[in-house]
Amino acid sequence: MSERVIVNFQRKPCYDIVLDKGFDSLLEELELLQYLNQKFVIITDSNVDAIYGNDMLSLLESKGISVYKYTFQAGEQSKNLDTVKNIYSFLIEHRIERKDVLLALGGGVVGDITGYVAATYLRGIDFIQVPTTLLAQTDSSIGGKTGVDFDGYKNMVGCFKMPRLVFINLEALNTLDERQYFAGFAEVMKHGLISDLTFYEWLIENMYEICEKDPDVLMEMLLRSCNIKKVIVEKDPTEKSVRALLNLGHTIGHAIEKAKNFELLHGECVALGIVAAAFISWKRNLLKMEEYYEIRDMFVPFYLPISVDNIEPEQILAYTKSDKKMENAHIKMVLLKKIGKAVIETDVTDQEILDAINEIYFSEEDAYA
Ligand code: GLY
Q1: Contact 173, 138 (CB under 8 A)
Q2: Is 143's C-beta closer than 6 angstroms to any atom of ligand 1?
Q3: φ/ψ bin of 345: left (φ > 0), alpha (ψ from -120 to 50), beta (otherwise)
Q4: Which residues pair with residue 103 across a beta bridge?
Q5: Looking at ligand 1, which residue's alpha carbon is closest to its atom 2?
Q6: Whole-structure pTM value
Q7: Share of the chain above pLDDT 70, in %
Q8: Closest ligand 1 atom, CA of 246?
């Protein structure tokens, strides 16, 4: 039986975020959007295709929808313009028209690429997000950020294109490997840290159930987390102001991701970046020392890293400068005033950033100390 819960955008961009324990009620949503006579192209990756590709095809076909499927190799290394080009060729070959619909079935890479293709193919066609990882369910599928990496720079080419629907099947989290699951949790924790102390405390209280993927706790967690993201995106869809708060942990996180050649998962780098940002916040007397240590240590039970080895701190600093979050040549960094309240600062110095990187850097010397 469907246990569907819906988070509505009340203002532009208007679309529903539907949470359910199964895929079946997706059909009702497609009917509401008057999509049943359109052609669909499912865009997915090799991992997700092996688990859900055929089920999704059959589900859509059961309503008589004409549906095609395009699958690319799973992994961040596919998030580039070559994959976009191959998808354009597939769409042209299958005569996909402007009224047709793309369905992104997968994690953040699938959602970002599909959104970018939807924004640019025939000057824009509709797409819907069916995120299957925790990271995509709580963050990347909501808010219309689309794009690809370019020359090793994360998400360097892209645009805003809102999906017409985000459909979250919580059961997909049961087929997600543990490392991916906990990496996604970093973004959930981020939502509590930037804007909701009560939610942050709830996450700590429900730590055991979250680690065990208790279905009701996951439903509440995602509902609250998606709602936080929705409220911020609604206020500032194209990141002119408050939406930048969602970048907590991402300046140093993206730099580590690049320096480690994407060996660490995005969420793992975000956890490291949040620890570094909290450290700077403590050193600026925005946070108390105990708050810094509490934030750092709360990642541990969720199997997220709080230190990283084999990096060059100076190189990480240099990479932070090529991040998209620069303003007038200053790094725009999100810091914490307290748990549940973030601020955007543009005067963080290189030395502060370097000190924070050294704080999370686990060197060989530390190992023998
Ligand atoms: N992931 C941050 C944002 O959507 O703005």
Answers
A1: no
A2: yes
A3: beta
A4: 42, 128
A5: 246
A6: 0.94
A7: 96
A8: 2
